[in-house]
Amino acid sequence: MNKTIQTTCPYCGVGCGISAKVDDVHHRLNISGDTSHPANFGRLCSKGSALGETVELKGRLLQPQVYGRETSWTQALDLVADSFIRAIEKYGADAVAIYGSGQLLTEDYYVANKLMKGFIGSGNMDTNSRLCMSSSVAGHKRAFGSDTVPGCYDDFEQAEMIILIGSNAAWCHPVSFQRIRAAKEANPALKIVVIDPRRTASCDIADLHLALASGSDAALFNGLLHFLSEQNALDSAYIKTHTEGFAEALDVAGIDREQLADFCGLDKDDLQRFYDWFAGHKKVMSLYSQGINQSASGTDKVNAIINCHLATGSIGKPGCGPFSLTGQPNAMGGREVGGLSHQLAAHMDFSNADDIDRVARFWNTANIAQKPGYSAVDLFDAIYDGNIKAVWIMGTNPVVSLPNANKVKLALQRCEFVAVSDCIKDTDTTALAHVLLPAQGWSEKDGTVTNSERRISRQRALFKPAGSAKPDWWIITQVARRMGFEQAFHYQSPVEIFREHAALSGFENNGLRDFDISAFADMTRHDYDGLQPTQWPVNQAYPQGRARFFEDGQFFTESGKAQFIAVTPRRPVNLPDQTYPLILNTGRLRDQWHTMTRTAIAAQLNQHKPESFVEVHPVDAERYGLVANTLASIESLLGAMIARIQITGSQQQGSLFVPMHWTEQYASRGRMGALVNAVVDPLSKQPESKHTPVRIKAYQPAWQGFILSRRELSISDPDYWVKMKGEQVYRYELAGMTLPENWQAWAQQNLCDSAGGTAQWQEYQDAARGNYRAARIVNHQLESVVFIAAESALPERNWLLSLFTKIELEKAERMALLTGKPPLGVVDVGTIVCACFNVGELTIQNAIREQGLKTHQDVGVCLKAGTNCGSCVPEIKALL
Ligand SMILES: Nc1nc2c(c(=O)[nH]1)N[C@H]1C(S)=C(S)[C@@H](COP(=O)(O)OP(=O)(O)OC[C@H]3O[C@@H](n4cnc5c(=O)[nH]c(N)nc54)[C@H](O)[C@@H]3O)O[C@H]1N2
Ligand SMILES: Nc1nc2c(c(=O)[nH]1)N[C@H]1C(S)=C(S)[C@@H](COP(=O)(O)OP(=O)(O)OC[C@H]3O[C@@H](n4cnc5c(=O)[nH]c(N)nc54)[C@H](O)[C@@H]3O)O[C@H]1N2
Ligand code: SF4
Ligand SMILES: [Mo]
Q1: 724: helix, strand or coil
Q2: CA distance 429 to 864
Q3: How far apart are CA 446 and CA 498, in angstroms?
Q4: In which residue ranges of the chain is pLDDT below 50?
Q5: What is the DSSP letter of 213?
Q6: How many angstroms separate the alpha carbon of residue 182 from the centre of ligand 3?
Q7: Which of 190, 273, 337, 434 is deepest in the core (most CB within 10 A)?
Q8: Residues ≥6 apart with Cβ < 8 Å to 181
């Protein structure tokens, strides 16, 4: 039976509503945007649209495992509880830890935090949000006395100027970006400024791109504060009535404009234009993300931005304010429950003895932790050093995503007890677990998440659980009960947890804390199931929620006034030197989500960037002898990786960019976390993931090649491999340092036992030039091809890939197979640009040429490309 269920996207913090048509019988979904959801009004990006492709059961963790063997829930849960109890008895409560994730639902997160901080009695619950939002949290706390995002998405249309700072929203918050694009199209006077060392897809709508020097944001905004003061562009009444510390902040902000431009690596006129625009507009929004947060001066950067908004009174009003874009679907929810190790719960933390006492009384526990636990980087160091004996990792993949990731790997290898809850079986982190706990994934689990604008939405179950998978909250409460905390963890369903969370938020609150959803404390299950997206707070004063904070100029500091913070700009901690002369910047791609455990299941999402790469400026390419589309090895003091070279002027000279996504599941040498330095911000403890000194050199294998195969293969140990799933095909990019003795034998060995039926072989060999090509056809269908080259170039893969979707090969196609090029008259579509409608680069180029298309709208009318999620529009424009 088909039913339609409203739920929320499990990827980014935009928090889009989804309307899912569910076909239980065939385990299929038909996904569309929920037109009634205020985060997206029906729009979805490529990742949200492809969710239906990710719900397959292949690759899922379906059964609990203990030391590699499938077992029962009882045994697995007993072992987790026993291991924790034993470690605590022997070494104390601080010898155990939970490392959670902004991808847990609020209910999961709440019970994990309650277990560790309330009942085990240690602060050792931290989360991957430490790598993501903690500088924003710390900056908000310093300025506002609370971790509050003041504004909302409706402000986009009302703003006169929007600044994207260290945010590639075009790829990372695509639906919000499209909303900003539409706002600009409706109001061309809306100024857009992008501040990012790279020229990104987000620059597509920018009036000004400031390609600043890595890490120099605080200086840039300090300079702005000083300029605003010089120009009398301040809101002096606001500063006087609602803030403190202005004089001190201004005092350290003054710097000669030339020097400043030099420090920031910016053109003086560009800098001036930005300052003039900011001073000349009342309604300015500063949207910021990881280019700000992931920095050893991340907290200062955040405050330098907030300072400028306080100075102009552009906060708490429509169309303006600092706005931290949250990354994960429940980054905000994690902050609500207190998932970071210095937080307690419901926006209370360990810095306040009253908070500790209050939460202890509410939870009715005598054992509450009294001090913060380890933050993420320190936590894994403590594991490495043997100070933590048992760790439970939930919903995150630290062997990839933490800095100095090889050390993280070693730490887990050394750790006495490692439990991992995940919905996917094979990840770089599950590989190191003693106990694996199968979690229900999106489409099975049920609960709430909170997006960037404080809006709480329901994720609803669409299917019955895969295998024996259980909700995270259930797994956690089962362990808690086994540890002797039955009373406090007696929940039967998520609504009971949500009610308790809501009650705690209102407990002795009386307007003291921003986070208050006490209106939900008595919610019925029926109301919970029907919960409509609502922005917190939701309490007596705001029964329907609240769009904006600070309209009244009242803040949550002791004095009720916002605090200016005097910021002294610093350079990143580790600067390039002779040995490691380049800066490694890391970040995201449009169609992949973090460590790819789910997005790489969707063939459609793998087309945009099928292989890990490194972006290099042409001058650096020349200097280091790098050739486009060949391989490079990149090394830092800590580790190395190999990636395909892309030469581009969008990169600054002296810096490299690599995507964060590739893991050991998808590439032999692509795990970039191994290189990243583990330097952290002294206040927020957030790692400086955007700045690691590295060196690069050409990687010169003896041979390169690729295999395309209908079936998944295990290829005998080439030095370099990347695997990617396509439409009915797996693509392997390969390179090796030694030539096999005999290519024919090599091909037979790697391809042969992969299919039944009678195979026909086509082969071509040019031993002199080191070329080998072969194809296997089984029952008229293409089964696999292999192309190897020692010296010459390899053909493009697109046409060959497309042959795998054919039931039968035509004669001309068979004949052309080993040339790698389509027979005359057949068109190659090129690399897929529009993932939503599967439109390739060559198709677009041809249409532009032949039909004289001028705008991306023309291309949309002609080919549909760019008309769904719109995130490929920048690339279409580049082709135009
Ligand atoms: N497609 C996709 N979308 C995602 C995610 C994903 O994995 N894939 N993940 C989600 C998550 S959890 C997060 S946190 C967000 C992250 O969203 P973003 O922060 O937008 O993403 P990043 O690519 O990590 O980094 C943003 C930009 O910061 C720039 N940058 C580097 N150094 C500096 C600097 O010193 N100053 C400034 N101003 N900029 C700098 C980088 O060049 C990069 O373009 O995305 C969310 N959305
Ligand atoms: N160098 C560098 N490093 C970075 C960043 C960067 O920009 N550069 N960005 C940082 C940021 S902002 C972030 S947010 C992190 C993200 O990094 P991670 O959190 O490590 O990455 P994910 O791939 O999102 O990991 C989520 C895991 O949870 C599993 N999972 C999914 N749903 C569920 C569920 O319902 N329950 C359970 N138990 N498991 C589930 C997934 O299969 C996956 O294994 O990376 C950080 N690391
Ligand atoms: S913008 Fe895309 S990834 Fe983010 S919530 Fe919306 S559909 Fe999901
Ligand atoms: Mo994130």
Answers
A1: strand
A2: 40
A3: 11
A4: none
A5: P
A6: 17
A7: 337
A8: 205, 870, 873
Integer Cα distance of 102 and 136 in angstroms: 15
Reported as a single tens digit per residue, the pLDDT across 218-256 is: 999 999 999 999 999 999 999 999 999 999 999 999 888
CB atoms inside a 10 Å sphere around CB 43: 25
- Please choose, from the candidates 324, 635, 617, 276, the residue with its C-alpha nearest in 3D space to the C-alpha of residue 454: 324
Instruction: Let me know if 728 is exposed, middle or buried by CB neighbors in 10 A (0-12, 13-18, 19+).
Output: middle
Q: What is the pLDDT of residue 867?
A: 86
Best residue among 51, 101, 473, 690 to mutate for probing ligand 2's pocket (most ligand atoms within 8 Å of CB) is 101
Cα–chain-centroid distance for residue 224? 30
Q: Which residue has the tokens 């030099």?
A: 262
The DSSP output letter for 273 is: H
Instruction: Report the candidate in 605, 614, 628, 549 with the shortest Cα–Cα distance to residue 585.
Output: 614
Nearest CA owner, ligand 3 atom 6: 16
For ligand 1, say whether the CB of 505 is within 6 Å of any of its atoms: no
Q: Is 553 left (phi over 0), alpha (psi -120 to 50) or beta?
A: left
Q: Name the token pair of 612.
A: 């890990």
**Ligand 1 centroid from CA 595, angstroms:** 14
Output the six-digit token pair for 699. 């990687």
Q: How many CA atoms lie within 13 A of 216 on its CB side?
A: 21
Ligand nearest to the CA of 11: 3
**CB–CB of 135/292 below 8 Å?**
yes
* Phi-psi sector, 562: left (phi>0), alpha (psi -120 to 50), beta: beta
Rg, C-alpha atoms of the chain: 27
What are the tens digits of pLDDT across the range 13-50?
999 999 999 999 999 999 999 999 999 999 999 999 99
Residues 505-555 have pLDDT tens digits of: 999 999 999 999 999 999 999 999 999 999 999 999 999 999 999 999 999
785 forms bridges with which residues in the sheet? 708, 775
| 552 φ/ψ angles, rounded to the nearest 5 degrees | -90, 5
The per-type count for the chain, helices as H runs and strands as E runs, is 29, 36
Ligand that comes closest to the CA of residue 593? 1
**416: alpha, beta or left? (left if phi > 0; alpha if psi -120 to 50):** alpha
Inter-residue contact 403 to 689 (CB < 8 Å): yes
Exposure pattern of 419-429 as b/e (b: 16+ CB <10 Å)?
bbbbbbbebbb
Phi and psi at residue 811, in whole multiples of 5°?
A: -60, -45
Is there a contact between 566 and 143 (Cβ–Cβ < 8 Å)? Answer: no
Q: Can you tell me the distance from the alpha carbon of 839 to that of 843, in angstroms, rounded to the nearest whole number?
A: 7
Residues found in the chain? 880
Asked if residue 537 has a cis previous peptide bond (ω within 30° of 0), the answer is: yes
Residue with tokens 């079986």: 425
- H or E stretch including 250? helix 246-253
Output the pLDDT for position 438. 98
Q: How many CB atoms lie within 10 A of CB 272?
A: 14
Name the amino acid, one letter, at 502: A
Which DSSP string corresponds to 575-599? ---SSS-EEEEEE--TT--TT-TTG
Instruction: Please report which helix (H) or strand (E) contains residue 862, including its range.
Output: helix 856-863
Give the Å distance between the CA of 128 and the centre of ligand 2. 7
665 phi and psi angles, rounded to 5 deg: -75, -25
CA 350 – CA 327 distance, rounded (Å): 25
The helix (H) or strand (E) run that includes residue 704 is: strand 703-709
Q: Identify the DSSP state of 805.
A: T
Question: How is residue 680 annotated by DSSP?
Answer: B
Task: State the chain's maximal CA–CA distance in angstroms.
Answer: 84
**Other Cβ atoms within 10 Å of 608 Cβ, number:** 20
CA separation for the pair 352, 348 (Å, rounded):
8
- State both tokens at 46: 């490529």
Cα separation, 505 vs 106, in Å, equals 13
The SS3 of residue 860 is helix
